[in-house]
Amino acid sequence: MKSLSTRSLRAPQRLALGFVAGLTALSLAACTSNAREDSSSDSGGTSNADKGSNDEAGDKVVIGFSAPAADHGWMAAITNAAKDTADNYSDVELRVPAGTNDVNLQISQVETFINDGVDAIVLLPFDGAAMTPVALKAMQAGIPVINVDREFDDPNAARVTVLGDNYGMGVSAGQYVCEQVGDDKNAVVAEIAGIDSLPLTQDRSQGFKDALAECGQNVDNRVAADFTVEGGEKAASNLLQAAPKIDALWNHDDDQGVGVLAAIKNAGRDEFVMVGGAGSANAMREIKSGNSVLKATVIYPSTQGADGIKLARLLVQGKSMSDLVEVEVPRTIQLFAPVVTEDNVDDYLPSAFES
C-alpha cells in the first residue's frame, strides 16, 4: 500500500533522480552490508565485521523505531526487516512500540523517545504532515530523525529521508509494457490504480503514462482500487466487463493484486500480460510458475526501514557511507524500482514480502 502522504516530486526532479536512484541504492546496499566479502556466512553481524569497517562494533546506539500498524503485507515487512537488521548489530538497541494508525499515539511514541534520550529515531509516519512538528522537536533536541517513505512537510524535520520511487514504478511498468506491445496502434493498455486521491497513486500513474508515450501508447481503460484484496477484485471485475480486449494491464499493488488475479480467473481471461506492483512473494511465485497472466512486478522496496536503521547507526557513530567519497551520510536516498520477471525472479524472491 505504501505511503499515504508522500509528497510529489516535480517531473524534472524525478527525471534527474531516475539516473542516480539505482546507483544510490547500490551504494547503500554495498557500504552498509553486514556480510564480509570473504565470508561464507549469511548471518552477517558485527561479530564477522572486518576491523575498521562500518560494521565493526562501536559505541552503543539506542534507536527508536515507529511505524504504522502492520495491516498490509508491505508494512509488516518494513517493521520486520528493521528488527532483523538491528538484531545483526551487537551495538544497536532497538526500541519498537506497537505499530499504530492513530496519529496521536504515534506522536506520543516519538515524544517518549525524546524524553528517554534515544540516540536516533527512525520514523515511518502514518501521516507525514501530522508527524512533522514532533519530528522537528526531536531534531531540535539533537536527536537525528531518519524519515522513511512518507515525507514530512518540512525538510528540517529529518536528517535523512529514505524514499521509494513511486514515479519510477510507473516508468518501469510502462517501459515493460512497451517492450510487450511495441508501437502496435491497436494495442489496448489498461491500468488498475490504488487510491486515486493519494499523491503516490498519482505519481505512479503519471510515470506509467509518460513511459507509454515513448512507444506511442496510452492508457485505454483505467479503474482505481483501494490496496485491498476485495477492492482489487471489484475494480478488476468492472474493468474486465468494460474492456472485452486487453493486451497489457498494470496493477499498482500486489496485495490488491490477489483480488485482481481472482477476478481475472473468474472471468476466464488470459489474452493479456499483467504487471504487478510492490514485489510481493506471492506475485513472484505466480511469475515463476509461468502459468499466469502475471509476467512481471515492479519493486517498491520493503527495506526502507532496515536501511533507516543502518543509516541511524552510521550517523550516531560518526561514520559515512564507505563507497562514497562524501564524508557524511547523504540527506536523501531514493531506492530504485526494478522490474522482476521470470528471468530474474530468483534474485528477488528471497527478500520479498508476503501479502
From TrEMBL:
<feature type="signal peptide">
    <location>
        <begin position="1"/>
        <end position="29"/>
    </location>
</feature>
<dbReference type="Pfam" id="PF13407">
    <property type="entry name" value="Peripla_BP_4"/>
</dbReference>
<dbReference type="InterPro" id="IPR025997">
    <property type="entry name" value="SBP_2_dom"/>
</dbReference>
<dbReference type="GO" id="GO:0030246">
    <property type="term" value="F:carbohydrate binding"/>
</dbReference>
<protein>
    <submittedName>
        <fullName>Sugar ABC transporter substrate-binding protein</fullName>
    </submittedName>
</protein>
<comment type="similarity">
    <text>Belongs to the bacterial solute-binding protein 2 family.</text>
</comment>
<dbReference type="GO" id="GO:0030313">
    <property type="term" value="C:cell envelope"/>
</dbReference>
<feature type="domain" description="Periplasmic binding protein">
    <location>
        <begin position="63"/>
        <end position="319"/>
    </location>
</feature>
<feature type="compositionally biased region" description="Polar residues">
    <location>
        <begin position="41"/>
        <end position="51"/>
    </location>
</feature>
<keyword id="KW-0732">Signal</keyword>
<dbReference type="InterPro" id="IPR028082">
    <property type="entry name" value="Peripla_BP_I"/>
</dbReference>
<feature type="region of interest" description="Disordered">
    <location>
        <begin position="34"/>
        <end position="57"/>
    </location>
</feature>
